[in-house]
Amino acid sequence: MFDWEKIGNKNAVHCKTEKEAEMFLTECDKRGIEWCREGIASSKSNWEIYKESTVYYIGPSDEKEGLTFSSISHFKEEGYTIFEFSDLYKPDLPRICYILGGEDNPLKVGEKFKISGCSGTFAIGADGHVYGVSSCGKALHFILEDIINGELKIIRQPQFSEDERAFMRLCVEAGYPWFARDKDESLYAYESRPKSIQGDAFSCDGDFFNLPESFLPQITFENSLFNAADYLEGAEK
After folding, report:
1. Which of 12, 41, 117, 170 could form a disulfide bond with 57, CB atoms 3.0-4.6 angstroms apart?
2. Could you tell me the pTM of the whole model?
């Protein structure tokens, strides 16, 4: 489901990946929105020109009212409000995504999660089935009953804003893909995979640096270690 109420009136849509661009243009097709000059919206994304800076706008142009595109810097200079596609597009989800994740923050299809007291990783498929293998001694449907009844909890991977993901990209590009928070709340970025020391802190053989404690609060002592490179690869597919 796409929130069309925010589109128009100098509001534009930023698609940071080619997949997002294709999804947005498919939504345009559903509403009969076409390119000002190139016809059917999904016939060509033009994403390769500006890539991760690609922004689309629906409104009047020199030719007619329709779809246009440019860079995010261009639209900002012209005084447009930029919305992230990921903030406007909410896919239709199986009901179990809301039951397990909550009405305000449902699990996504394919989002990996763990279950307290169980080993293994789980995910919900597009068909609404929960997939995964556990060694906690119970059949999966009994585990799900325990979650619904509050006896077990799901443990989700941290969710991050675009600004937080941008910061992670910088760290990964600089060669520091690992993050961990010590028990005293100190947060560090590491060059190589750190190891636990005495059960309350982390250290590694390579280089590392300290980050403000307020950064990335989603990374806790309990869910450390965190591999930002793996997370970004999965989040941007």
Report:
1. 12
2. 0.49
